[in-house]
Each structure stands twice: as C-alpha cells, then as structure tokens.
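Kindly inspect the following:
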Amino acid sequence: MPQLIHAHLIKTHSFKILIYQNSPYILHIFFSSLPFSLYTPMELLYLLYLVPTLYACFLIWKMFDEKRDRECYILNYQCYKPPNDRMLGTEFCGKLIRRTENLGPSEYRFLLKAIVSSGIGEQTYAPRNIFEGREASPTLRDGIGEMEEFFHDSIGKLLAKSNVSPSEIDVLVVNISMLATVPSLSSRIINHYKMRHDVKVYNLAGMGCSASLISMDIVKSIFKTQRNKLALLITSESLSPNWYTGSDRSMILANCLFRSGGCAILLTNKRSLKDKAMLRLKCLVRTHHGAREEAYGCCIQQEDVEGRLGFHLGKTLPKAATRAFVDNLRVIAPKILPIRELLRFMFASLVKKINKNTNAPKSVASTGATKSPLNFRTGVDHFCLHTGGKAVIDGIGMSLDLSEYDLEPARMTLHRFGNTSASSLWYVLSYMEAKKRLKKGDAVFMISFGAGFKCNSCLWEVMKDLGDANVWDDCIDEYPPESLANPFMETYGWINEVDDPFTYEHLPEFLK
C-alpha cells in the first residue's frame, strides 16, 4: 500500500473518502454500510460522471425556479369614475358646441353626424374647466387638478382593497400622454402617498392610446431581472388643456371621441402572492410603424392654420391602423394559438398557392379591414378591444371574425365611458368581470392602437373566477341596453334642414 503522506477523513451518511495528497484523483472509496471496499476504475468513472450530472440538474432546477419569479401577475386594478357633476349630457353638449367660436352650419352638421355615429352615450365624463366654460383658456392647474382627482380616488381605493401600503411599492410607472409637468406627475404621486426614497420611477408622455401596454412591457422587463417586487401602473389622459376650439374637422373629431377616465393597476412577481393574483401575463407584442410617413402623420398633435392647438386624425388612419394590426398579429399569433390551428393555416395557405385557379374574393369591411385567415377563437376566450370609436371596434371585429358577444364589452364601454385613451382597455376588462364572464383558465386577448403609429397586444390568463363590478357597480344590470341609438339626432336633427341653425324659429331654449 502506498505511503500515506497526508489524509483527511470526510464523513457522510453513507461513505468515507480518503483523499491522498499529491494525487489528481480519489484513490479509495469506502462504503461504511458494506463489508467490503470498492477500488475498481469503473466506480471511479461513475463518480466522475455523477458530479457533473448532478451539477447540470442543479442548474436546470435553478433556471426553472428563477423563471417562476419572473412572472407578471395583476393583483388588482381600479378604474376611475368621475363624479356625476362632470357627466356630459345631450343638452350640455349642445351648449358646449354652441359657445365654440368659428363654427358654421357645415361644421354643426359634421359634429352631429360624428357624435351620432361615434357609439358614445350620454353618461361620459369631461374635465371641470369645460363645465366652467374655460375650455378655450385652460391653465396648468386645470390639467394637474384633473389628474390629481383621479390619482387620489383610484390609487387610494386600489391600495385599500389590496391591503397594500404605499411604502411597499417598489416600481411606479405613470403614463399620461398629453400633459407633462415639473415636477413630474409621478413625483406628485410619490409626494402624496409618501412612497419610499428608492422606488423605481418611470414617467411616460406622448405615447398615445396604446401607452397602457407599453407601461406593462416596462413592468414585465423589470420583473425579469428583479425578484419579489410590487409595481403600481397608472394610466390616464389629461383632457383639460387639450380641448380644440377651432373649426378644422380633422381636429374637431377628437372632441367627439375622447373622455375623462383612468386606471390604477397593482402588479407583482412574488411567488407567494400567486394565489391572490387575478391575471397572469403570458405574452406581449409591440408594433411601431413610426418610420412610415403615412403612419406617423395620421394621428398627431399640431396647430391648425389659425394657430389653435388640436389633435389631428387623418384620413389615412384606418389604413395605418390596419397595417400595424396585421403586422402585430403576424408576430403574436404563433404565441397564442394552438398548434392545430397553425397547421391548419399552413395547410390552407399551401393549398391556396397550389390551386392557382382559385380567385375567391376577399371579405372586406367598410373600414377596409380584411378578414384574418386564422381563427383566433381557438386560442382566445375573450377579446378586450381598444374603444377608439365604433368604426375601430367594427374593423377589429371584421378582421378577427368576432361575434356580437365578443364585441359587446368594447361597445358598452364606448357607450358608457367613451374613449378614455390608454385606460380604455381596463374599462372593457372590468365590464367582462362585472358580467362574470372571466373564469379560471380563460385567455383574454388585449389589443390597443396609438399615435406613432403603434399597435400593441397581449394575452392574459385568468387565475381565478372574477366578479368584481368595479366602476360598473351602479349600472351593469342595465347593459346591454335595448338600443344604443344616440339622442343627438332626435334633439338636433333639425340642423340638417336649415341653412343657418341659429336663425331657426324652433331653436331649443337652452341654445338661445
């Protein structure tokens, strides 16, 4: 037996190992539970294979364990319902239009047609300065006050019902597209709720109606690199300083569509809070066509020929939206649809290419939208659509071959709350929840559009049966109504029959 220069005895539960100094490998393995010792090279070879194998298994387990901490869950959300004294009724809208300067008979008829066909009802909300008659001369305080009223209401309710303290928030993301202040709106939230000094803050502006999912992408990216975090996402739009007072039709249209609203959302990647989560983010895709001049200029804030600031909605908007939508679907479809549907699509495409004699006409909607060859219902249970207007909802419905049941949440949200910009998706989701449509395991597909031009979409998995009425608590039983007919035509239809509306002998008293 070779001379033992120096040895250490290492004890384990099952064996003892003698390590010999100046030896590049283990010479002997003694199993304490066996009456004999193993010295053959085969056992040594097994050991050499065992160590890296166990290490590889450890790395694989660690990778899956870390992946579970990278999930993005929604714990709760709270939409904003302004007080009733900010509600836009038919008569007040007539007064508001009447006091707008530089409008002639043709502009009045255009506004009547736009409002009647918009899909918006009589219970939407506007900023306070409009009710005070100061829409033509807004102040900075008007914009800040509008946002703070939303912040203090929705964030407070969200934290209270989630039983979360402001000091527990690790990440704050705020997106308000058309109002930038110093200090930022996010700083005002931190000051009001006295959040921690090390809270990570992201303040977005100018991102348009699709900013909500852009903010969600920021949170998702943070959750991939940092464990056990709570994030607060704030999404809204400030209308106080952005009411257009000119006569350019492409800018007047924005006054007919956009309304006050907002939403506060609490998210986490904490594994311990998984059982309390409402939704889990499965995938998110962003498409940006800003490099195309036609798409870039179709939806833009600018001044008219008389220097009045407004939001221009161009005639090329439907075409730009369709292109962005198609490109976005091309990327997200393989992520959310089952293999059988993708194989069916590939087979159908192959047959179509082979059969050159087939000239089937395309199904085209009035908006120019083309029906998708993919059946998105095979991978999606609910469709949460951006409430950009009746034409937008109709176009998406045609493209994805959706039923009226699928479109109902978006139509009802547009009717009740209008287009609340980036927060509109959450009002639609809230309608689904109030109607108790969302069951555990369901897949919810969100689609939004925004200036730039952008199309963003994502897929959520419902983690438990949901049924909170949120901002629909006082009216959900009334929806859907028997008719969505807008009362504007009944009240103001006479404008189409006269040359000068304000020389009309039967002019309503409240317009005189």
Notes: Residues 72-340+372-497 form a domain with the Peroxisomal Thiolase; Chain A, domain 1 fold (CATH 3.40.47.10).
